Amino acid sequence: MGAYLSSLSFVDLAGRLPAAAAQGLFWGIMALGVYITFRILDIADLTVDGTFATGGAVSAVMIMKGVNPWVTVLVALVAGLAAGFVTGFLHTKFGIPAILAGILTQYALYSINLAIMDFKANTAVSSATPNLVMTGLNVNQSLLVCFILAAVIIAIMYWFFGTELGSALRATGANQEMSKAQGINVNRMKVVGLAISNGLVAVAGALSTQYSGFADVNAGRGSIVIGLAAVIIGEVVGEAIFGKKLNFAGHLIFVVVGAIIYYLVYTLILWLQMNPNLMKLFTAIIVALFLAVPYLRSKSKNSFAKAGKQSKKEA
Amino acid sequence: MLELKNITKTFNKGTITEKHALNGVNLTLEDGDFVTVIGGNGAGKSTTLNAIAGVWPVDTGSIIIDGQDVTGLPDFKRASLIGRVFQDPMTGTAATMQIDENLALAARRGKKRGLKWEVTAKEREFYREKLKLLDLGLDQRLSAKVGLLSGGQRQALTLLMATLVKPKVLLLDEHTAALDPKTAEKVLNATDRIVAEGHLTTLMVTHNMRDAIEHGNRLIMMNEGKVVVDVKGEEKKQLTVEKLLQLFEKASGSEFANDQALLG
Ligand SMILES: Nc1ncnc2c1ncn2[C@@H]1O[C@H](COP(=O)(O)OP(=O)(O)OP(=O)(O)O)[C@@H](O)[C@H]1O
Ligand SMILES: [Mg+2]
After folding, report:
1. What is the residue range of B24's domain?
2. Domain interval for residue A49
3. Residue whose CA is at the smallest distance from ligand 1 atom 15
4. Do B95 and A164 touch (CB under 8 A)?
5. Cα-Cα-Cα-Cα dihedral of A164, B171, B211, B262, to 10°?
6. Which CATH number characterizes residue B249's domain?
7. Looking at this predicted complex, what is its ipTM?
8. Which of A165, A175, A177 has the CB atom closest to B113's CB atom?
9. What is the pLDDT of residues A184-211, one digit of tens each?
């Protein structure tokens, strides 16, 4: 025990925090995409596990062909939009349940991602490449760039969801019956929402690839859970601090904050020399718990067991 | 203004639950007609309103609104012509959005939705004026989430939303049935005022015979997917519950089997 404790260095932990924050920031962008489907559209979209890897693959391959890294992020965005469009198309035109449509696209993307990378499971990005949007070799600069990117994306989302089109999209998630009665093409809105969401996820995938120096066909595995974790942690923390006053912009900001907290905890676990492979288990438990809380809370107020006890007491 | 020609609709065709919900509905509404609709459970009242709104395609017949044949259009493409208030107060509004946001959505019914900012300050002023007329205190709560409102407030808001862009036809399906009597009265009064002010062509389904008699200038009764009684003009003004029951028995050859309506 003593040996274990003395092996823990706070200087070391402090040194790791900026990298954790940088990682949290680009996962925060991914989580903003998840927020659009999960919270705004009320759809659980599993496409993202594939799209995250697509963004990375597109970016890595193009960078190795000499394309400017910033341009590759834009191309990743377009690829993500297309992937989301396919899921939306399968869902709205063919009546495939959204969750299944997402799984199908994600499954197909595995092959497509491999094809993009010339049928290799991963592609390295030379860290000597000039103009990388972010790189693990320069954490502080990456942190700054990613912070600005996240802020710009939040600002654009805040604006978009305040426009006529964005409001129609929010209405679609809130109440389809009402939306249709107000002349909104709810199917089109779902496709638009899924596309934007996956666009953001692909951007995050591209950033992740440039930061880590390689693209991997498995990079996105389980990313939906991390995205959900970020959304949920952000909500809990945001509402704990600001209560009901947390407005839409606040929610978006706290999605990113949630992702940063997630990666800080992740770093802490690594620092404590716990097995990082257990992180997936912890994450799943945390997400399951937080998803269960609202349900259990309403049930505890309104349960048969309670009614039964009450009845016995009165008898 | 509204013309229904021989509308039929069968649900679950070819299965054991097959149901002929509409068996040739014919109805023509003049501009400004305020028609109350009564009939027993399952008579086809809601189905008729859903057919007009385009919730699903009809089997046969045609629906013409303001001279335009809309039979082939899905609901969201007809929405520019139609205002709707539903029975369930939850259905007509978006609970997680603010009052002004809900109204702004309704203000754009039938218009192209682009990248313009949705709720402008000028619009909010306009909504505030409209809400004041409802006299439910909503004009002070423009930024409140609709989920915080009572059922009556939500129905009144839905009514306002349905008429913010003047509809060619206003469809009210038992829109006060879920409310307590006092609130129902308030919403009905608002309905009368808004319909009169806008000279709106209206179909109002109700289970309350007295309301059906007291409101509107025309009354129809449905039975087994058909319009079986149609009373207008002076005759409508002279109508009583007893007379209405007689009319129904004559038209359908059976007694009006609906205690709820009798009690009303
Ligand atoms: N979507 C549907 N699918 C299957 N059957 C339906 C559907 N909508 C209505 N029906 C059936 O059609 C018949 C007419 O229903 P409708 O809702 O129009 O009655 P109503 O006159 O509005 O009655 P109520 O007073 O109970 O509201 C009923 O037998 C109903 O069960
Ligand atoms: Mg009905």
Report:
1. 2-81+167-263
2. 2-298
3. B42
4. no
5. -120
6. 3.40.50.300
7. 0.91
8. A165
9. 999 999 999 999 999 999 999 999 999 9
